[in-house]
Amino acid sequence: MFTKEFYSKKYISILLVLLSVLGFSQKKFTVVLDAGHGGSDIGANRNYGDLGRVQEKDITLGVVLKLGKMLEKNKDFKVIYTRKIDEYPSLTSRTDLANRNKADFFVSVHVNSSPGSSITTQGTETFVQGPNQNKANLEVAKAENEVIFLDENDKQNFANYDPRSPESLIALKIQQSKYLEASQWLGGLIEENFVKDNNRFSRGVKQADLHVLRKNAMPSVLVETGFVNNYDDAAYLSSEKGQKEVAESIYKALLDYRKAINGGFAAAKEPEPVKLAEIPMKNDFRILLMSTATRYNENDAALKGLNYILPIKENNVYKYYYAVTNLASVRDNNLKTAKDAGFRNAMAISFLPNQTLGFGYYTLEVAVSEDKLKNDSYLLKTLKDVERTKEKGIFYYTYGKYKTLEDAVTAQKDIENKGIKNSIIQKVLKN
Ligand SMILES: [Zn+2]
């Protein structure tokens, strides 16, 4: 009797603790809803005799407001809008808003148009910011990024973002792959719902390099809800019913995603609940593509179109590393991407984050030249204390001493902002 009672009391108190932990620690899931375009930026548009002028900026706002209403009714969610009226917030301010609020997810809603005058292309597709781009996706990236040229502020901000500001992650371009997995997962749920619930045609989840996603410090998707130049899509997306259905599909995907994250991953529905349950490793992993004496610049063909490359010079050899992640599955995926791109001997290399070198330091190799740089050259005028060494008739110029790789990456961004491009981080192993 006693034992039984003892255990049941203990059991109940454990249960209560558990419930309170679950109940109070469940922080709201913050979603930033971004209605694409707006104001003077109409986005994709077409004239139809019966539908009138169908404009992307109206459809995206319609969908986002409906989606926001659904989410606001759910106490688990906090909704932040980049716009609620017909106005044009700059792409930077959209991203900053999300980063400042430490959002859990960023959902940007858009409407597609196909290049040329095709009226048959139709369906939905969801884009995530990814290291692997391909040509077809580049078209969408180009169209969506065109808005950037409307905005002088954006141009400036994208050209030189401050890596130390909290709004932007240090060396974001090599960090982004950390959010890829989650973005792809939500994208998959959204596309699946479009097909299953609304009988839409899905073109799938794709990776692209989109300005509105690039600086986001959280998983993000850009949903292309259909093609404005296809009559059926245009009619559907301009209707209340169509917009409501699109909003519902995204809403249900967000619910499932959040549930999976909060309720332990057992509750997650496929696809791939196991992968998200993955515990991040202590180490970062980069994929070593090649070690060579040749110094390549960012867009050199030798890098086979891969982005997110970090070259590090060590003992007169340049090592080219691709992407970075602390998830084993992403690491394996990155390795596969590298091998598929043609780097057959690529391998994953482990890095301890923020590790200081025992003997030595990191520096930036800012120029390599057969001729001595003139004192009034842009480089020497811009940077103070550039060191020059000569080896086998070649002049090597280095700048700065940094304790960690991360510090060197930050410094590299700084000088990039000053117009010193194509510097390479160099590891110097001595005192
Ligand atoms: Zn758009």
Automatic annotation (TrEMBL):
Catalysed reaction equations from the record: Hydrolyzes the link between N-acetylmuramoyl residues and L-amino acid residues in certain cell-wall glycopeptides
Domain MurNAc-LAA: 95-255
Any one annotated GO CC term: outer membrane-bounded periplasmic space
Name of this chain's protein: N-acetylmuramoyl-L-alanine amidase
KW Protein transport (keyword) present: no
GO molecular function, one term: N-acetylmuramoyl-L-alanine amidase activity
Sorted UniProt keywords: Hydrolase
EC numbers, comma separated: 3.5.1.28
The keyword ATP-binding is assigned to this record: no
PANTHER family: N-ACETYLMURAMOYL-L-ALANINE AMIDASE, N-ACETYLMURAMOYL-L-ALANINE AMIDASE AMIC
SMART domains the UniProt entry points to: Ami_3
Database matches in Gene3D superfamilies: Zn-dependent exopeptidases
InterPro entries linked: MurNAc-LAA_cat, N-acetylmuramoyl_amidase_3
Source organism phylogeny: Bacteria, Pseudomonadati, Bacteroidota, Flavobacteriia, Flavobacteriales
Catalytic EC class: hydrolase
Stored Pfam families: Amidase_3
GO biological-process terms attached to the record: peptidoglycan catabolic process
